[in-house]
Amino acid sequence: MGFLSIVGNSFGCSASGERLVSAARDGDLQEAKALLDYNPRLARYSTFGVRNSPLHYSAAQGHHEIVALLLESGVDINLRNYRGQTALMQACQYGHWEVVQTLILFRANIHRADYLNGGTALHLAALNGHTRCIRLLLADYIPSIPNFCSILRKKSRNEEYISEFDEGALYDVISRPADGGVTALHMAALNGHAETVHLLLDLGASVNEVTIEDGTTIDLIGAGSTPLHYAACGGNAQCCQLLIAKGASLTTENANGWTPLMVARSWNRDWLEDILSRRPGGRPRLSPSPCLCLPLMSIVEIARQCGWRSSDSPSSGCIDPCVVCLERKCTVAAEGCFHEFCTHCALYLCSTNTASNGGHGPPGSIACPLCRHGIVSFARLAGTEPIITKEIARTSLSLPFCTCSTNEFADTNNNSLETPLDFHCARFPSPIGASFRSLSCKRFPSVNCMGVSESSTSPCLVRCSTRSSSFRRSNSQSDGRKWLCSLNHSSYC
């Protein structure tokens, strides 16, 4: 009976983990809070097989409040599933910028790559054209200085500002290749995301990067292809024009001997004939991307130091609350016009706003909602103090099976974790309080606890479609964008 009792309780704790997974997937904040209050270690639970955690599910579904709750419970922010994907990568895949913002503020690692095809969060955001996610991913690399665009264009050599900006680090992030040498610019150009292409080019993405014969990605264009080859395959005229304006070559041949024009003809992109065959007399001037946001780095640093999630009403001594939300006290001021906002609203402005029309400021500034002045950075108000928080210990321990033992512990003073596998939780008398629980570990035979569909949280790196025997394509632009596939799947994603 003792063994059967342990088995029964094993399924009980596993069921609690599945309940947390369901709450994270469905956005049930109250259920998630109740489960984590009962057992905080459930945040480390992961599903059988594909190893998706509640953090993965909440990020993929866009439930940023549950994401923050799980992170505050001590879950590893960079926890991977079986494909090597983190919660940040899945949030970028589906374009949930509020989740990306939360993960970035908690310092998620943007450099982690998928085990199967080498794609990072930036690749996934570019693949689907999520420019808000891209600007948040790069918040720590784009300084809040007025002449940032001039520095990138080599028109300014102000050493004071150059010392604040590591151009090499930004280039390494932007131009990092996945398997096969595919960069984020290749992804965006193939799928016709002109805004994303424009932003990446403004941030220094190279138009001369070429793919290679390596990795798991099936490349039907051929190795040695530039982003312009990919844009020609995708069929988006604006992407082709942006790349040409940045100096992309019309005559570069890939390993198959194809130029971008030949690629366009192969995929029936007849409307690109004039663009890819005409040699421009002079390179057209490319205006700055409206998606560039300079003040983001400054407000992210302030939010990390002083917090951003407080929803308390303004204190009694605060006469003027934030003019945007009218709920929180002002904590930051826009440099230049000195209008004051709460950190939460300033973050929202920087994450969602595009370059102001009629605003007065350098490229990349955002318009103040009160006076239309171009905001380049935010400064912390004198009364805003940094929050001193106790560091949460983060581990990568998983909790696939949690077994509740009905027996008292022989030694209640021994609370050390002896085995980093499965947890056995038991209630026992404690001087701290009746609700105190101690955790210790014992090995337990593996039990299959599948029960949640995993297909929605394991996206393919690049979209794909089948190729007919005659190698002819439909004139539909959407059909021609999807031709790459990861080899871990069969012929379809």
UniProtKB/TrEMBL annotation:
Top-rank EC class of the record's enzyme: transferase
SMART domains to which the protein is assigned, alphabetical: ANK
Keyword terms, alphabetized: ANK repeat, Metal-binding, Repeat, Transferase, Ubl conjugation pathway, Zinc, Zinc-finger
Pfam families: Ank, Ank_2, RING_XB3-XBAT31
GO molecular-function terms, A-Z: ubiquitin protein ligase activity; zinc ion binding
Keyword Acyltransferase found: no
Pathway annotation: Protein modification; protein ubiquitination
UniProt-listed Enzyme Commission number(s): 2.3.2.27
Reactions performed catalytically: S-ubiquitinyl-[E2 ubiquitin-conjugating enzyme]-L-cysteine + [acceptor protein]-L-lysine = [E2 ubiquitin-conjugating enzyme]-L-cysteine + N(6)-ubiquitinyl-[acceptor protein]-L-lysine
Gene3D superfamilies the UniProt entry points to: Ankyrin repeat-containing domain (1.25.40.20)
PROSITE patterns in alphabetical order: ANK_REP_REGION (PS50297), ANK_REPEAT (PS50088), ZF_RING_1 (PS00518), ZF_RING_2 (PS50089)
Intervals holding ANK repeats: 50-82, 83-115, 117-138, 180-212, 223-255
Residue stretches making up the RING-type domain: 322-372
Protein name per the record: RING-type E3 ubiquitin transferase
Species assigned in the record: Erythranthe guttata (Yellow monkey flower)
